[in-house]
Design brief:
- The protein is of the alpha+beta class.
- The protein is built from three helices and six strands.
- The longest helix has 22 residues.
- The N terminus is likely disordered.
């Protein structure tokens, strides 16, 4: 699959099932609200005459264990976003991709908004998350 758009690479701290649950809940609320007309799409406000639709979410045992990731790579083209999650091991030049998510631009933006909202809630509770810029290791650096 060719991707015409830009590429963004950044690192992420551990994404655990419990924390991911909060992201999914925020994203689920946004998706449900807009898909079923529960949010006024222009104002983003709840429409009072309808009740939210409840979904039963299930997760199998291997998926519930989650993966530790400290790398994400995002590609896009006009119709989709591809998000790869992986792990970088210090001293190694390779990245092991552990999961690939494909989604629409609309869902990618809803994920962005849900993640931003949850980071705001996290920082209210636990304090500001420092921004860290990692410098790639030089080829002369010793490896174990």
């Amino acid at each position: 699959m060719g991707c015409d758009g830009g590429v963004v690479v950044f690192t992420w701290a551990r994404i655990e099932s419990i924390r991911a649950h909060h992201i999914v809940e925020g994203l689920r609320s946004a998706i449900i609200g807009r898909r079923f007309g529960l949010l006024d799409s222009k104002k983003g406000e709840a429409m009072s005459e309808e009740k939210p639709v409840e979904f039963k979410m299930t997760i199998d045992e291997p998926t519930s264990a989650g993966h530790y990731v400290n790398f994400a790579n995002i590609l896009h083209n006009p119709t989709e976003f591809v998000i790869d999650f992986g792990r970088i091991v210090p001293g190694r030049p390779d990245v092991k991709i552990l999961s690939r998510i494909l989604t629409t631009p609309v869902h990618a933006k809803q994920l962005l908004n849900a993640l931003a909202q949850n980071i705001g809630l996290y920082e209210q509770q636990f304090g500001s998350i420092p921004e860290i810029t990692l410098v790639p290791p030089s080829s002369d650096a010793p490896t174990n």
